[in-house]
């Protein structure tokens, strides 16, 4: 089979070597971007009198035809054409004849593939951002319904202080807000056209890079042709932003997995997001949450893989860079799938308010309340801490909680304690009184909710 670059070769590779070098099995995902880039390029060639206008139009028409076929899933790719670029060039020539061979004037696969990748990520990052917003809305919704749902807040996975469940949900809202911001910011560096850098050095033809950039909807062009073809920072950045986002998802996934266990019993997942066991009839497993926790592994792996490919690569294009694609595609699919599933899971989960509240009535997470109460009465906080610590120990020995101690026993520990302590010690009161800015107090959570809503 004759190669597009076969002129200086007298011998061809065996099929298995060709297969190893080919990228068509995966870069066909760039088919529409590649055609779009070619249409812009050939229009520019015609407009700049680099090729006759009628030929440019003929080529553009052929490309439009290929686009229709691509959308209908009618294109047949072949390994011997190596990649999406050469496959399409061959198809174009078959479609319109030898004039199709003029398309590649003043262009290289190096700026072509970089252009495809920029176009692809520009689209996909927007889709991912949309999905982040949807997940944020789902969290916001659960938060709105649960401002006054009190449940244990943890540090070290030990009961710490009671909090509003809405506050917990909103913590993830803000995490995702930062993720959204990172993707949004990365757009500046995705939205640049490498087209016209040609192989690495620019071209002798009087091309118009600004025209093609405008045709393709890019805001600017690379200033340096060598940078243009060798830059994959925008891919690294995309993978890094994805890795951090899915790390956030995996943290919430872990909490959901814990919360659905009998030990916590704080939420129940909708049946659609759980599965059973083939042997244990009672099981309801939080599979989707586990899977997303697991998928963070491949997304982080894709980031590390890409950085490793780039490390030590000399300028400009190197075939190593063909390895930039599978991780990127995989990350796009994994992120969209995970975000969609997560949104549905959060939307449909049932919050068990009663179980949550009864949990905080059976622990020492109101101990800080008592220490604060004493500190407010003028006892140095460090001493108050010691007094309460001893009371907790007494409770443990007597197998009860702080609210079970009679007033005289409390007063024995500290004479400043009065009848009003019992109100202070109730977990609901503890949450309500944490009214410092950004705290879990119901009023603060409501303010936070309003701010969050304005962002959606
Ligand atoms: N399939 C190649 C890739 O994905 C396209 C660029 C090839 N360029 C070259 N000079 N061999 O990286």
Automatic annotation (TrEMBL):
Q: Which Pfam families does the record match to this protein? A: ASL_C2, Lyase_1
Q: Which domain of life is it from?
A: Bacteria
InterPro entries assigned: Arg_succ_lyase_C, Argininosuccinate_lyase, Fumarase/histidase_N, Fumarate_lyase_CS, Fumarate_lyase_fam, Fumarate_lyase_N, L-Aspartase-like
Q: Name one process (GO BP) from the record.
A: L-arginine biosynthetic process via ornithine
Report the catalytic activity: 2-(N(omega)-L-arginino)succinate = fumarate + L-arginine
- Where would one find the signal peptide in this protein? none
Q: State the compartments where it is located.
A: Cytoplasm
In which pathway is this protein known to take part? Amino-acid biosynthesis; L-arginine biosynthesis; L-arginine from L-ornithine and carbamoyl phosphate: step 3/3
What is its EC class? lyase
Question: Per the UniProt record, which EC number(s) apply here?
Answer: 4.3.2.1
Name the UniProt key words of this record, in alphabetical order: Amino-acid biosynthesis, Arginine biosynthesis, Cytoplasm, Lyase
Q: Which HAMAP family match?
A: Arg_succ_lyase
Q: Which PANTHER family match?
A: ARGININOSUCCINATE LYASE
Give the record's family classification: Belongs to the lyase 1 family. Argininosuccinate lyase subfamily.
What is the designated name of this protein?
Answer: Argininosuccinate lyase
Q: Origin organism of this chain?
A: Lederbergia citri
Source taxonomy lineage?
Bacteria, Bacillati, Bacillota, Bacilli, Bacillales
The encoding gene: argH
